[in-house]
């Protein structure tokens, strides 16, 4: 896991991570309020994706780029 993104990529992943964690929290609140079981699944997936994005930003590493796929950011 070596650094493979620049500061623009780090900023993008950090914003995306915070956004996904916030969406996950909103979905969890909606699942609790409306008692809809599948919203819990979506909330968990959104929150996990957000945490992974924050992990990538922290380590200046992109999993997609590590697999050899070029990204714009």
Can you walk through the features of this model?
- It is a single chain.
- The chain has 73 residues and is mainly alpha-helical.
- It has one domain (7-66).
- It has 3 helices and no strands.
- It has helices at 7-34, 37-59, 63-66.
- Helix 1 packs antiparallel against helix 2.
- The chain is elongated, with a radius of gyration of 14 Å.
- The model has no long low-confidence stretch (mean pLDDT 95).
Give me the secondary-structure topology.
Blueprint: H1 7-34, H2 37-59, H3 63-66
Helix pairs in contact: 1-2
Concise account of the structure shown:
The chain is mainly alpha-helical. Helices cover 75% and strands 0% of the residues.
Highlighted features:
elongated, 73 residues, 3 helices, mainly alpha
Q: Which class do the helix and strand fractions yield?
A: mainly alpha
| Uncertain stretches | none
> What is the β-strand count?
0
How many independent structural domains? 1
User: What is the H-and-E element order?
Assistant: HHH
Number of helices: 3
Please state roughly what percent of the residues sit in beta strands, choosing from under 5%, 5-15%, 15-25%, 25-35%, 35-45% or over 45%: under 5%
- For the termini, the CA-CA separation is 18 Å
C-alpha geometry: elongated
Helix content: over 70%
């Amino acid at each position: 896991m070596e650094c493979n993104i620049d500061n623009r990529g780090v900023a993008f992943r950090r914003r995306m991570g915070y956004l996904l964690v916030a969406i996950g929290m909103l979905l969890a609140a909606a699942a609790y309020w409306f008692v809809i079981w599948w919203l819990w699944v979506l909330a968990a997936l959104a929150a996990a994706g957000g945490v992974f994005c924050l992990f990538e930003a922290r380590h200046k590493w992109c999993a997609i780029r590590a697999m050899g796929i070029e990204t714009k950011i």
